[in-house]
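Appendix B. Raw example, untouched.
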Amino acid sequence: MGTAVKHMIKWIWKNFELLFWSAALIVLFFLPVNKSETSLCIFSLLGFGKCPGCGIGHSIHYALRADFASSFYHHPLGILAVLVIFNRIRLLIKQNKHHEQQPN
């Protein structure tokens, strides 16, 4: 493997959490919200009612689009989840900048 590829793999591994949370928010922003889609919730697939986590994806989707009423309707903690994830991304970026400024 070339040094550029090794460097890229090392960078991705080092920044995996930052990439994961950023990608998750991007996917949830563009997620098509369709009521007729099959649920991925195990409890729903087994025929039970909503579990505590049901609707969090839709809630985050609506919160990212600033539709806070719909977000709260789907799950009351969706807005808080978005704030926590954005704060985590901010802290990871700050941490990466701090590590890049330190001499090796």
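End of appendix B.
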